[in-house]
Task: structure prediction
Amino acid sequence: MASRLHAVFEREPIWKVMGKRCSLGLSCFALFITFDPSFAAQIEVVTKKEKTLIGKSSVSRSSERYPWKASIVTTVFWIGERPAGKNLVPNRTSAWDKQWTKNYGGFDDPNPAHRRNYIPVRFTPRQNPFYCALPYNDKAHTGHRPEAPRVVPWFKEAYQGPAVSTCKDRWVAIRKGNRIAYAQWEDAGPFRTDHWQYVFGNERPKPNLNKGAGLDVSPAVREYLGLNETDVTDWQFVDFKNVPRGPWSKLGENNTFVINGRKKSVKVAEGLTRNKEGVIAR
Result:
């Protein structure tokens, strides 16, 4: 018996023999599926279930890091807003930008009659018109608040020195019904700037003049979600890699989409220049 096997392997290497057997096995399996539709259907169902489970697990991982804050009273605010009624602070400046209105390009008029395509008709904003405010400011008069490195989840990766906020421009998903808008965090409020236990923890917003509001959103977010001036939404932080393109990805010098697009254009231009120089050199 051993001599016969030796003779076979001398004629043909073992890897070829095994390869043929595997190919034959796969062919038989394929024929079996072809002639047994019920078995093929079972395989398709199992595959779909696996894909669904993979999708759910990735979503759950994202929600575990940044859980949704549910049923949060939400009010509308805008750049250039003057103090009136329950709004005690002018919005000419923000917690992180002393010339917010100027840098935005002007008054972000909330009147729907004076707006088109999520922006005011009088000018094109120089910053993202999809913005929001949450009641925490990580900056102190000098450096950062003592708890900031501990409570801000992305503090270490976003840190750029004592003068720069790690919260400004962070992306936030805001949900109303089956619609989700994405906005950048641009100010601290409403009313408070120190409530990290709510913004990053499990507490609810503190009582305030606006029915316990815990989120301010811009007119653009209001329009996209169809919100009332005071409404209820859910929100969560979102890593930029998970933010889809939409009306929030088009405008703004502070907009991550715009910044990355410019970097890509520069790299393409540099590559074309190098290629051109190479052709001339030859």
Remarks:
- The beta strands are 69-76, 115-116, 119-120, 131-134, 171-176, 179-188, 215-217, 230-237.
- The longest helix spans residues 37-65.
- The chain has nine helices and eight strands.
